[in-house]
């Protein structure tokens, strides 16, 4: 690219950051040169009279020799060279097994937008215009995994942090001179490299689409607060394809690749047990330390460190970044989920609302402190009376609003009839739950306040499930034994195709295992596997069934899959440590969660402790 900018050549840029053999010096150079070149280019643009906006529409074909190994067979195992990763990313990749890709839910997973332009893709770009011929959106169709991407050009805001993430994310664009600059959020988890290096679902991306004649340069800057210490900058070139060549479709259907494996197994290597991590350095004679990556390996100065006596210092590991705090958005946000189902998201947990001609059904009611606001939000969604409250479990952040909602959410006329002496006020709005919830609410531990009768479940079930039909929809209450507590219910709205999972699934921490209320680690994993069984994605592991977690953002099957994989892998690690006779203190000190801590670690110690106790109890 630097040659082109210097006006010496119109050849397409050569951004190879993967060359065979000892490519390290060339590679670190090219990335830094790329950044400098970009700055130069931006400066050059500012120096000349304003360009018109470029026209990007057309069919574009990639110059596949660039970063060839990322495009075809994928990179070598253990090659983390030239990437600004932190220790958590490194450890997570070390535990990754290629067999993971044989899981049915992994087979058709899409390359996230941060990676997909490196695929063997054909790219079609077009503009969408309104009646006044203003460009509302610039669309991309990417043949890899048949992805359509919308870059909104109308200045609309990005969605709520509780909204679902997608493989293509949510994008807004603006013209800076004749460069289209795009900002993308709400991206699903993806690859940094297809050897286990992960981009988290908290990553964001800024891109620049730069057209010069028949060449389109695409530059992306990915910032991942979980797994990188500096932005990751990459580029690719495309050539205008006037002939509309190539295949535009990407059919994919998951199959059973391994038939003698338990459906719930997650392939991975225990810490220190991956035998393939030195293959790359042995074969290409690259420094063992250099291949571990880290921001310092991106820069030319690293060459000198490599040649220094004793070799380079080990990668700056330090502790991974502090776990991010739980979501701190507005008090209450209301989001449509799908069909008749809405999410009332609050800082202290999620409430699911189903509305229709017969009335309102709520799954959980939030904290007591928020109950007036929740009631007002429900009233906005529907003028019909509240008929049912389902409690997923007994905790006050899910049942604290029961009293207010049960007293004031129901129908006036029913209240007038039913509020005769001796009648039960609580029956105006039926509160449903598993019977274990009622038993525990009725018998609070010593020192805990009595729970008012009106906010206790008046209608409980004992078995594995209970059926309801409400607002034209079949609804199943599914008991999940010994999970978050011993009274967990997941609520499956079969027509809307939404599952309200309670605290079996949370997106902003590790699972909470309430041992004192009958919870257990294996029950959480069983519950996550059950969600995978129930959920059916619409296309290439995205959409279809939506799952509302107890805390955090709306999920689909892929999000549950990644969470299930994480909890299973951590269980396997702790189980292995227990087998080796390690004590709780030793297990804690070994940090079996450290590759996931930057994202979920707010409850790291209590999770590891509860997991350990839960696993040793079942012996
Ligand atoms: Zn809870």
Brief sketch in words of this structure:
This protein is of the alpha+beta class. It has 17 helices and 24 strands. A hairpin with a 2-residue loop joins strand 12 (332-338) and strand 13.
Could you characterize the architecture of this molecule?
By secondary structure, this protein is α+β, with helices and mostly antiparallel strands. The chain has 2 domains: 2-6 and 13-244 and 276-307, Lipocalin, CATH 2.40.128.20; 332-617, Ribonuclease Z/Hydroxyacylglutathione hydrolase-like (Metallo-beta-lactamase, Chain A, 4-Layer Sandwich). The protein is built from 17 helices and 24 strands. It has a 9-stranded mixed barrel. It has a 7-stranded mixed sheet with strand order 12-13-14-15-16-17-18. Strands 19-20-21-22-23-24 form a 6-stranded mixed sheet. The model is unreliable at 1-37 and 40-51 (pLDDT under 50). It binds zinc ion (ZN). Zinc ion is lined by residues 393, 395, 398, 484, 503.
Keywords:
single chain; about 625 residues; alpha+beta; Lipocalin; Metallo-beta-lactamase, Chain A; nine-stranded mixed β-barrel; 17 helices; binds zinc ion
Write the layout of secondary structure elements.
Layout: H1 2-5, H2 24-47, E1 58-62, H3 68-71, H4 87-94, H5 104-107, E2 123-129, E3 135-142, E4 147-152, E5 170-176, E6 179-185, E7 190-193, E8 197-199, E9 204-212, E10 215-223, E11 232-240, H6 279-284, H7 301-307, E12 332-338, E13 341-346, E14 349-356, E15 359-363, H8 371-381, E16 386-390, H9 396-399, H10 402-408, H11 412-418, E17 430-434, H12 435-442, E18 459-461, E19 465-470, E20 473-480, E21 488-493, E22 498-500, H13 521-534, E23 546-548, E24 555-556, H14 557-579, H15 584-590, H16 597-600, H17 604-617
Parallel strand pairs: 4-5, 15-16, 16-17, 17-18, 22-23
Antiparallel strand pairs: 1-2, 1-11, 2-3, 3-4, 5-6, 6-9, 7-8, 9-10, 10-11, 12-13, 13-14, 14-15, 19-20, 20-21, 21-22, 23-24
Helix pairs in contact: 8-10, 13-14, 14-17
Bound molecules: zinc ion (ZN).
Zinc ion is lined by residues 393, 395, 398, 484, 503.
């Amino acid at each position: 690219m630097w040659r082109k900018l210097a006006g010496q050549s119109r050849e397409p840029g050569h951004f190879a950051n993967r060359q065979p053999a000892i490519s390290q010096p060339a590679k670190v150079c090219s990335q830094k040169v790329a950044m400098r070149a970009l700055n130069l280019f931006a400066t050059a643009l500012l120096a000349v009279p304003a360009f018109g906006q470029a026209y990007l529409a057309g069919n574009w074909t990639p110059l596949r020799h660039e970063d060839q190994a990322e495009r075809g067979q994928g990179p070598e195992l253990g090659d983390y060279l030239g990437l600004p990763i932190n220790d958590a990313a490194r450890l997570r990749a070390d535990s990754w097994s290629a067999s993971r890709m044989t899981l049915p839910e992994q087979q058709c997973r899409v390359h996230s937008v941060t990676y997909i332009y490196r695929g063997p893709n054909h790219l079609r770009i077009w503009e969408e215009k309104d009646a006044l011929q203003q460009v509302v959106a610039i669309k991309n169709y990417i043949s890899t995994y048949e992805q359509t991407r919308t870059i909104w050009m109308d200045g609309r805001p990005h969605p709520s942090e509780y909204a679902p993430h997608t493989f293509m994310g949510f994008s807004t664009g603006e013209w800076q001179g004749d460069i289209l600059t795009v900002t993308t959020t709400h991206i699903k988890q993806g690859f940094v490299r297809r050897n286990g290096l992960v981009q988290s679902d908290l990553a964001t991306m800024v891109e620049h689409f730069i057209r010069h004649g028949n060449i389109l340069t695409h530059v992306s800057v990915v910032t991942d607060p979980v797994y990188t210490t500096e932005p990751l900058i990459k580029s690719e070139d495309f050539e205008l394809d006037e002939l509309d060549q190539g295949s535009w479709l990407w059919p994919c259907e998951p199959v059973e690749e391994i038939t003698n494996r338990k459906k719930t197994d997650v392939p991975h290597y225990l810490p220190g047990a991956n035998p393939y991590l030195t293959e790359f350095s042995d074969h290409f004679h690259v420094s063992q330390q250099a291949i571990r990556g880290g921001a310092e390996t991106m820069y030319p100065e690293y060459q000198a460190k490599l040649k220094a006596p004793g070799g380079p210092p080990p990668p700056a590991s330090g502790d991974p970044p502090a776990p991010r705090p739980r979501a701190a958005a507005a008090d209450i946000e209301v989001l449509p989920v799908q069909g008749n189902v809405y999410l009332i998201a609050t800082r202290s947990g999620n409430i699911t609302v189903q509305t229709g001609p017969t009335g309102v059904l709520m799954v959980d009611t939030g904290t007591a402190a928020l109950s007036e606001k929740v009631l007002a939000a429900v009233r906005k969604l529907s003028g019909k009376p509240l008929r049912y409250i389902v409690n997923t479990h007994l905790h006050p952040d899910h049942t604290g609003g029961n009293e207010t909602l049960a007293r004031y959410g129901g129908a006036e006329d029913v209240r007038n009839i039913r509020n005769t002496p001796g009648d039960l006020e609580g029956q105006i709005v039926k509160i449903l739950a598993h019977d274990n919830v009622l038993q525990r609410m009725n018998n609070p531990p010593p020192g805990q306040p009595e729970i008012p009768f009106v906010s206790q479940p008046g209608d409980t079930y004992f078995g594995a499930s209970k059926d309801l039909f409400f607002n034209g929809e079949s609804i199943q209450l599914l008991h999940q034994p010994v999970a978050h507590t011993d009274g967990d219910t997941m609520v499956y709205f079969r027509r809307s195709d939404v599952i309200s999972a309670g605290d079996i699934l949370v997106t902003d921490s590790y699972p909470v295992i309430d041992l004192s209320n009958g919870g257990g680690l294996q029950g959480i994993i069983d519950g996550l596997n059950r969600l995978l069984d129930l959920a059916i994605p619409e296309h290439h592991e995205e959409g279809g069934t939506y799952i509302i977690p107890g805390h955090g953002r709306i999920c689909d099957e892929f999000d549950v899959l990644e969470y299930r994989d994480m909890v299973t892998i951590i269980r396997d690690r702790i189980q292995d440590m227990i087998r080796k006779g390690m004590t709780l203190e030793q297990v804690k000190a070994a940090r079996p969660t450290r590759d996931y801590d930057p994202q979920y670690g707010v409850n790291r110690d209590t999770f590891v402790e509860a997991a350990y106790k839960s696993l040793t109890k079942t012996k």
